[in-house]
Amino acid sequence: MPSQQRVQWAKTRVTFVVFSALVILGTLVVLLTGGTLFEPKSTIYLYMPDAVGLVATAPVRVDGITVGKVESVELTGLNTPDRIVRVTMIVERDRLASIPDDSTAQASADTLVGDKFVDIDSGKSPSRLRPGGTLIYKASPDLMKRLDLSQFQDNLRQMDALLTDIESGKSDVGRLLMGDQIYQTARRKVTELQQSLHAIRTTSNEMGQALYTDTIYRKVEAQIRGVDESLALIQSGQGSLGQLLRGEGQYTQLRDTVAQRRKTVQDIHVQDFFRSDQQYADWNKTVQQLIRNVDEFSVNPMVTSTATYESLTGMAKELTEGVKDFRENPKKYLRMKMF
Asked: 204 versus 70: which is more confidently predicted?
């Protein structure tokens, strides 16, 4: 039979183990509940026309942040359309300070087939929701009404056609993934680029000579040297331009020529023709006399009548016939008489 001391020691060990297990269990519960197990809670309410998919223990979120859970969902027995179902929610009391009293709530889901939760949108009122307060219900739009099924089918059809083209290698992406045509084209382009770079590196073409030889440098240097020599000749007074810039001979000659031309123009201006209108008057009289002579001649009967013209024409015809007759029969006019 065990002694009394050993029995007492066994009871002590069992008590210590049970106490340690309870401490560990409590710690796990606190950690699993986010450290809010012993924090004070508050109850708030939401009245809805229906609660399809919303069940107890569903999350309660304020602007996307979880602040509590749904405690119960029950019928109110009221005939008001928007107060058919009452949702009782439990939230941390310190979170009520972040919920204005004009906030709205609705039943939402992350996905089309996801679980429902209470989504609270914060209002703008300076007053805060009190424990036991009621949130304003905001009807959530019907997802099926917003979803354009025909457009969704068209998008699926286009996606299927795109994938089909890719699998058959008809599109650029398909040729890239299913064949090597684009790869071969890119490889050919790279090869051509390498050949071009190799051709440039050679000194047999103009580009290679420009990059790897001093041919262009020598040409430019020769042109610059020629310009420098021309400027040196001008500076030393050689050549016509140098003489013009460095000496006064050509300048003096040019000045004398200009002075001579100016004197000639001045001499012309001092002529009687430019100083008086006597010659102009004489010329005008001569022209007027010539006009009168022409008018007198135009009224002459020889000009105004055709008789003189017809007489001259008849005389010319008779003379022509006489000459013709003389040429044909000259004996008729050359007769010798014998005494």
From this structure: 70
